[in-house]
Amino acid sequence: MSPARPRTPRLARRRAAALLVAATTALTLAACGGTADDGDEAGAATSEESSAFPVTIEHALGTTTIEEEPERVVTLGWGSQDTALALGVVPVGIPADTWAGDPETGLLPWTAEAIDELGGELPETYVDLPEVDVEEIAALEPDLILATYSGISPEVYAQLELIAPTVAYPDQPWLVSWQDQTLINGRALGQEAEAEELVAEMEALLAETGAENPSLEGLTFAYVYGSPDGTLSAYVEGDPRVELLTGLGMELAPGVADLEAPEGTFFVNLGTESTDLLADADVLITWFNDEQEQASVEALGTFASIPAVQRGSYLPLLDRQLGMAMSTTTALGLPWGLSEFVPQLVEAADAVPAD
Predict the structure, then answer these.
(1) Staple 145 to which of 166, 169, 171, 267, CB 3.0 to 4.6 Å?
(2) Which distant-in-sequence residues (6+ apart) come within 8 Å of 124 by Cβ?
(3) According to the model, what pLDDT value does residue 121 have?
(4) pLDDT at 8
């Protein structure tokens, strides 16, 4: 497949916006309320995009300048492809999701829907974990590489920036809020204002959903991953999973909020001897690869002793696509999965005893 694609027309960008707005029904009027003449609007937008460049972005691995509007965008890691698509840009290459994506295409459903809606050629897909195949990326002849939510090493970054301007994570590998991820990618694409609108729409969707489910307000939570070997890890502030739940009005449990993640990570390994740190979590959320893994972890005495598990205010996620949608918190994945996720969360919250 040729990676070439025509510059995304403005119409396609509107269709992408419509896709997001359709899923965030409460925001429809705000997003689509303009009355400007279409032709004038398109002309103004083109002028605005052209004037957005050059763009200079500082990140953890250096400073990157994008001289002109990119036409061949490649993404690495999680989420950046969704932001690009939500802004009307179909990348020429995106990572295949081998965990939750379609077995044939590697595409997550909301990503595939957006690509279909925008039209054009399907992006090339590749596996970028645990290692990035730099030669494979170079073959796509990108003019921008978005690795905002990734774990690329300084060595890989040094190779990538010789291929094309590359934007890495702002501070630490794999630790960037969904808001920052959206804004940084939007700026790199010359659509900072549009990215700000996306963030505002997502925050409004979370706030409205939280208001519709007041039983969540003020409840404390911990989001963990347990494995059959007894390892137990808690996600920390700044991780998109945590930010999504606080956006719904919940609060990170003090026992976890006080933890400091080691540099370069987005979680803290509690160990089986430290599950007492989860005692103040009203609700415990976790995910499993399959039912067998779930049964093995839930049979561990240390896991079963966690108060939230004992009283049933516990949400185990087994649906990989839903788990991924609620993990990456993108402008496409959030509206795709939120309406299915929240009722399960509320059911767990209902098991929390009243004060």
Answers:
(1) 166
(2) 1, 3, 92, 93, 94, 140
(3) 86
(4) 33
Q: Which residues contact 168 (CB under 8 A, 6 or more apart)?
A: 59, 60, 61, 62, 147, 148, 150, 152, 157
> Angle at CA 266, nearest 5°, toward 262 and 272?
70
Name the token pair of 112.
């595939």
The Cα 277–Cα 250 span in angstroms is: 18
Return the structure tokens found at 239.
Answer: 């991780």
* pLDDT of the residue at 270: 86
What average pLDDT does this structure show over 214-238? 93
Residues facing residue 172 across a β-bridge: 175
Amino acid, single-letter form, for residue 121 = E
Please give the backbone phi and psi of residue 66, each rounded to the nearest 5 degrees, phi first.
-105, 115
E strand or H helix at 269, and its extent?
strand 267-269
pLDDT tens readout for residues 25-63: 333 323 333 333 343 443 344 444 557 899 999 999 999
**Cβ(2)–Cβ(92) under 8 Å?**
no
Cis, bond preceding 130 (omega within 30 deg of 0): yes
Alpha carbons within 13 angstroms on the beta-carbon side of residue 172 total 15
Three-point CA angle 94, 96, 101, nearest 5° = 125
- Strands 144-146 and 73-75, by their bridges, are parallel
What digits encode the pLDDT tens for the residues 321-348?
Answer: 999 999 999 999 999 999 999 999 999 9
pLDDT at 244: 96
44 or 263: which carries more pLDDT confidence?
263
Residue-wise pLDDT tens digits, 122-172: 999 999 998 999 999 999 999 999 999 999 999 999 999 999 999 999 999
Q: Note whether 8 and 89 are within 8 A (CB).
A: yes
